[in-house]
Structures are given as structure tokens and as C-alpha cells.
Amino acid sequence: MKPNNQGKSRLKSVFVCQQCSRESPKWLGRCPDCQSWNSFVETSPTPSRVTTRLHTDVADLQDLSRVAKADSPRFDLGFAEVNRVLGGGLVPGSLVLVGGEPGIGKSTLMLQLSAMMAQRSTVAYISGEESVNQVKLRSERLGIGGEGIYFLTEPDLEAAVACLEGLSPGLAVIDSIQSMYLDEVAGTPGSISQVRECTWRLERWAKQRNVPLLITGHVTKEGAIAGPGTLEHIVDVVLYFEGEPFSSYRLLRGVKNRFGSTNEVGIFEMGDGGLMEVANPSRVFLNAYKEGTVGSVVVPTLEGTRPLLVEIQALTTPNNFAPPRRIANGVDFNRLLMIIAVLTKRAGLKLFNQDIIVNVTGGLRANEPALDLGIAAAIASSLQESTPVSGLVALGEVGLNGELRGISQIERRIAEAARLGFTCCLMPALASVTAGDLRQSLQPAGIRLLEAGSVAEALRLGLTRRTNTKDTAHENAV
Ligand code: TYD
Ligand code: MG
Q1: Which CATH number fits domain 74-279: 3.40.50.300, 3.90.1150.10, 3.30.70.20, 3.40.50.150?
Q2: pLDDT higher for 478 or 4?
Q3: How large a percentage of the chain has pLDDT more than 90?
Q4: Are strands 171-175 and 123-127 parallel, antiparallel or unpaired?
């Protein structure tokens, strides 16, 4: 509903989109930037530009070549997977935002990291949403004694920062940024202006005191932390904690990192005793894979620099009475439609009267083009009731003409597949210029390369028709 906007406030206030933080002098029903409906909320103009101004003059400019390199040791957070995502540990004075859906395990991760850090220095854990008893219960469940962790429930950020000042901890945790508020800022806790100003305040504190600060943030249903682009440019590091509710695996993914490379992932399993690192991460998503299963193909994907083997399952079922349905779990829906179109037109598969479901097992979301051939082979395998040849992984991007295209870091992917016992790789034909070198470098992996120029050829090479099965399963079905 359009708010009443009469009188004095009309001159002073500004309307801010709660999804993307676009400002407007008047209320709008729909945001012109992010297209969300009814997302504008009236707020007073934000004071950040005034309060963050520093008193500097020209003498403060420094000649970069004369600046001595600061020796800033990184803190080892105990979990090698977290250190890896952070680029080798936590940098003092850095502000790290960990985003994720409610219930995914952010508070659990924070508490476990606090406990490990508390062995070396004091940790302040400030929660705006949980009481000390709730956190004590969780810590008991995790087997954490709590020595060296100082807990406070305080949603008022100024009060929280005052406590941090008093304690001067070696690590501070704020759980969650959406539950904190500053008195002088308009809007309820969690509104875009509050979240932004609170983050600015924490950023300044972390930098002034050179203390690392971990903050958690709930993601909106669009998958962004309090509106895209609002917080991500303020903080130093943004990590997303992901996973499907039905799966116990959790991925900690780096999205922004001022001190290391992004796109690294850490893999955890949520168990009764909290989060545990996974011993052999590249095969966690293969735990139920059985070789020789119809409609099931393994693809060595890359998450950042880490190879991960994923199982792609496809199921085609005849549907002669209604428009065919396509369901994509863990792969991009439009990519699936493209692959189905290519299979229909370029490989002659009759898919027009088939419902098609494609799944990445283990609840992983994998959106690489390198998955295309695996998806195509899984669909063809299910339709034709054929099985992938023994020990097969598939790899390759599919083009609209049915051609197969090369993909990045093929050696690393193939080496990992070989390490896990796979014996042949269905892949795009190697370009003649680089073929010699690449074959040479792939040789130690001891894997047979099944090179194909097109999807149709790849399906012929990679799938074994069963005898006594008809060409298309839907013909004998119903
Ligand atoms: P939590 O850390 O509270 O999530 P968030 O802070 O992201 O909202 O995690 C809550 C979920 O984790 C809850 O569904 C229970 C589960 N969990 C376990 O499975 N094992 C554990 O040891 C703990 C502490 C939680
Ligand atoms: Mg929580």
C-alpha cells in the first residue's frame, strides 16, 4: 500500500528499495533496477557519509614504494577447509561476511571457529538473536567447553562495540548482521539502511583495532545478503554457506576475497557433533554411485580450483497426453532445455513426448558448461536404456550445432577422476595444435581418452546399448 507521505517528512526522507538499495525521492510500487514489487521503505537519509569522514591532509599521502610491507600473519582457524577458502587463514583487521539461508549452520560454524580461536586468544561472540542459554545448549551439543569465549546477547550495535572496546578480543563474531541496529539510523533491524550502517560501523572498528571480525548474514529468497551489492562492497571477504536441507553436506564458497582468490570451496558435513571436514572431498558426492547404472553419468567438475566428481542422473518417462515436463535439480534449467534441443535436432533422439528429470546427486548445484556432455549422456542413457561404458567420466561443453567444445583445466579434472579409479574419459576431440602436449600430460593419469567431435559421436562412443532392448524405450513402454 502506498504510504501516506505528507508534510515535513516529504522534504527529508528518502525511499530505499530493500532488495537492491536503490534510493528514490518518492515511493515507487516497483523498483526500476531490480524489478521487485512493493520493496520501497521510507527512511531518513543515511548519515554514513558524515560519520565516516576522516580528518586527513596532504601530508598523509604515502609513497607506495617506501611503504614497508606489513608482516601480517594470518590466523589459523583450525578448520583447514575454512583457511583454504580464506586464502590461507584469517587476516587481522578483516571483516568477513558469512551468508546463508536460515538453519544452514552459520551459528554452528561461528561457534566452532570461536572455540578453536579461543585456544589462542580471547573471543567475543555477540548475538542479536539468541540467548546465552540457547548458545550454551548448542556448545554442549558440540562438545565445546567455552573457555575464552565471551558471549553477549545485544542487538544494539553501539553497546556491542563498547563491549568489544572493553574486552579487546583477538576475534569478534557478530551473529547476525540483520539482528543488529543503530539508534541513530531509521528503519527496523534487518532493513537495508540498518544493515548497511551497522556493517560500516563494524568495518571501521575492525580496521581501527586490527581485529578480525566474522559476521553472519541471512540471505534473502533471491539468494543475496540483504540485497545484492549492499554489503558485499563494504566487507573484505564474502563467503556463502550453502547446502540443501535434505543433504548433510555444506559448501563454504568464497565469492569475494581481498586477500586471496575467490571461488574456492570448503566442504563440510553436518553431523550430530556439528560441522566436520570431509576427508576425501572430491568423492563425497559420489557416495551412492553404482557403475553401470542406466541414466547415471559422472562428471569431474571444478569448484574454484578443487576438482569435484558429481553424479548426474537423468530419467526420461513417456508422456503422450500432456505437454512434456522438464525438471532440473542442481543444474541450470535453461541449459537443460538447450541440451534437450540439441539432442533432439543434432543427435536424433525422440524427446518431444518424454518427461525429463535431471538431478545432481548430493544436493550440489553445479552450473559449469563442462557438465553439458554428462547431462546429454545421462538423458540419452535413460532414453535408450543404455549404460555408460565401464569406468567412464564425461566432460565437455555442448554447442548449438551439436559440436563439443573444450573446457578449462582438463588435466586437473582427469587426474582427479583417475585418482578415484575411473578409467576412461569421454571428451571433446583435442585440437590438433595442442593435442600432442595435452595427450602427453594426460598419460600419467593412465586414463583412456574417448575423443568425440560431436554429441552424436560421443553418445556412440560412451554408451553401450544393451542387447534385447529396443532403440527407444518409449516405444515399448506404457
Ligand atoms: P544453525 O547454526 O543454528 O543455523 P543458522 O545460524 O545458519 O540459522 O544450525 C541449525 C541447524 O543445524 C539445525 O537445523 C540443526 C543443525 N545442527 C546439527 O545437525 N548438528 C549440530 O551439532 C548442530 C549444533 C546443529
Ligand atoms: Mg543462527
Answers
A1: 3.40.50.300
A2: 4
A3: 48
A4: parallel
